[in-house]
Fold this protein.
Amino acid sequence: MELNGKVAVVTGGASGIGAATCALLARSRARVVVTDVDDARGEAVAAELGENALYLHADVTREQDFAAAIRTATERFGRLDAMVNNAGRVGAWTYLEDITLEEWDATFAVLARSAFLGTKHAARVMREQGSGAIVNISSVAGLRTGFGPHPYGASKAAILQMTRSAARELAPLGVRVNAVTPGGIATRIQGHGAGLEGEALDASIDNVRQGLRTFQPIPRAGEGADIAGAIAYLVSDAASFVTGQNIVVDGGLTLGKGWPSNYRAEADATAQSRRPD
Ligand SMILES: NC(=O)c1ccc[n+]([C@@H]2O[C@H](COP(=O)([O-])OP(=O)(O)OC[C@H]3O[C@@H](n4cnc5c(N)ncnc54)[C@H](O)[C@@H]3O)[C@@H](O)[C@H]2O)c1
């Protein structure tokens, strides 16, 4: 993928899908503002990428942090071509009747509301330029039940509809808005959601990877790089006629029930049993 010096802001760039995205964008010759609330990891990601990347502390629940991140991109690199709204947490994980209003709002703030804020502030710069691409990260939990808690899934579904309505408004102004929907990806998010910290959290990634091996029809866990590839495509000029779309990168997880593995033997047996004597 050739990104020819495009300038990108990535939220949640310190870990998992965000870190893999920063790495792929930088390898594709983009300049990247890595943002996160995990300063140690974020600084390390940016340092690894060299002079075409920098790290900025930005909390996606705070509107002023989005304004600052985008100002940093335009002051340091002169423009903004890509905004990747990726940061996320699992949030409140309990039965419907036990979720407090505060937990519901906090989950929406870090997921759906942050995608709105990133889209709003990026669009202000991109419409002036007459070009730009915004990519919002949803989840299979926003498409189907059973893949995440209620406020998480509802937030991720909201992100998909906001992507479509923003895309419709901004297309005539040269700004494209798309979504990427990951399936089971081996990152820290699951361990974090289970309350792990430090080394236990780092170690959880391999356990998650093992657990996801048979979770979907493609028999391996998803990796951050799988999602980064779809994001880089949507940001690139190869996708210049693509807007309002959602690329599902889930190893076939949402395809539904498959044929039984011995379906041929079953079909033959059924045909045999129906044959007249
Ligand atoms: N891993 C999966 O299986 C999976 C599946 C579907 C969707 N997703 C989505 O992908 C995105 C990235 O998740 P990941 O799997 O890479 O997880 P991760 O935990 O590895 O990375 C998430 C990053 O977001 C940051 N973050 C959290 N709250 C923040 C805040 N308030 N402000 C700024 N940064 C914040 C964290 O510090 C972390 O660096 C999330 O939106 C997640 O919902 C992940």
The chain has a mean pLDDT of 96. Residues 150-170 form the longest helix (21 residues). DSSP finds ten helices and seven strands in the chain.
